[in-house]
Amino acid sequence: MRVVLGVSGASGAMLALAAARHLRRLGAELHLVLSPMARRTLELELGPDAAPELIGLAHRLHDPQDLGAQIASGSFAVAGMIVAPCSMRSLAAIAHGLDDNLLTRAAGVQLKERRPLILLAREAPLTLAHLRNMTAATECGAIILPPVPAFYLCPATLAEAADQIAARAVDLLRLAPAQATPWTPPKGQDHGP
Ligand SMILES: Cc1cc2nc3c(=O)[nH]c(=O)nc-3n(C[C@H](O)[C@H](O)[C@H](O)COP(=O)(O)O)c2cc1C
């Protein structure tokens, strides 16, 4: 069960670590590709130990410039790919099939092979170009999962919110029974989100 985790330079670096931990817990063989800006946001948002920790969770770290890597080919069987977080630059490249680095190429491979591709597209507010690119990526077969907290679960910390978002992303790959905390209505109430 191989899974590609792409990490781009959008805010929300903790989503990458949370997704990697969930995938490892499921026993996935983790193929990691970090854009240069992802390394920068990991350090800025989480400190100098974050990138080494993330890389330590991967079975294989791929060079983002190596377009000859195994994950650049549809012949290398993988169950799917998550981009967490996904910048508007990477989203645009994926939506328009640019395949201009290993992250966007591997994402394009998932689309051409009709495998799941989950994009935790993060920006706020959104321009018309961002929205159009989300539509285009969806039309190509990707799933846009904006990393917004499940407010209805009342997360106590940012890490808890990120963990739930990452679990939802992993669940969308449908590799195993769902891991994310489900909504449960409080006793006496029969309506919820
Ligand atoms: C601290 C920081 C936060 C950023 N947050 C975002 C963001 O939330 N969304 C986004 O699209 N770009 C964000 N950027 C800009 C991207 O890093 C930049 O557009 C970059 O070219 C993305 O390239 P990549 O997709 O190859 O990682 C951020 C940059 C920095 C330094």
Automatic annotation (TrEMBL):
EC id: 2.5.1.129
Binding-site residues for dimethylallyl phosphate, renumbered to this chain: Y152, R168
All residue ranges annotated as the Flavoprotein domain in the record: 1-167
Domain of life according to the entry: Bacteria
Signal sequence region: none
Function statement: Flavin prenyltransferase that catalyzes the synthesis of the prenylated FMN cofactor (prenyl-FMN) for 4-hydroxy-3-polyprenylbenzoic acid decarboxylase UbiD. The prenyltransferase is metal-independent and links a dimethylallyl moiety from dimethylallyl monophosphate (DMAP) to the flavin N5 and C6 atoms of FMN.
UniProt name for this protein: Flavin prenyltransferase UbiX
Organism expressing this protein natively: Gemmobacter lanyuensis
Name of the gene encoding the protein in the UniProt record: ubiX
